[in-house]
Amino acid sequence: MRITSKGQVTIPVEIRERAGLLPNTEVEFEFDGKVVRIVHAGSRKKDSRGARLISHLRGRGDVAMSTDDIMALTREG
Questions:
Q1: Residue 43: what pLDDT?
Q2: How far, in Å, CA of 16 to CA of 29, rounded?
Q3: Disulfide check for 49: which of 5, 20, 62, 65 has CB 3.0–4.6 Å away?
Q4: Which range of residues forms the domain containing residue 39?
Q5: What is the spatial distance between Cα 29 and Cα 41, in angstroms, rounded to a whole number?
Q6: Cα–Cα distance between 59 and 54 in angstroms, integer?
């Protein structure tokens, strides 16, 4: 892996997935004199991967149906 002239590096997808680093995840860098670590910025227990995913998807739906209409569709059959 190579750092670009802008100081950028691509984090491999398997590491991003295992670490829960979704697009727009805020991160911080820590340096102990030998090792650089990327950590979630302001890590909080309630800021779970699922909560970030829901936040990312909120407002993106484009179906003009009420919850009752959607539930009625799931019960048909």
A1: 56
A2: 15
A3: 20
A4: 13-75
A5: 9
A6: 10
Q: Is there a domain that residue 8 lies in?
A: no
Q: What's the whole-model pTM score?
A: 0.48
DSSP 8-class letter at 39: E
What number of residues does the chain have?
A: 77
Burial of 47 (0-12, 13-18, 19+ CB in 10 A): middle
Mean pLDDT, consecutive 10-residue stretches, the chain (77 aa), reads 94 90 89 92 68 83 85 84
Strand, helix or coil for residue 30: strand
d(CA 74, CA 77): 8
CA 68 to chain centre: 29
- Best CA proximity match to 19, nearest among 35, 39, 33: 39
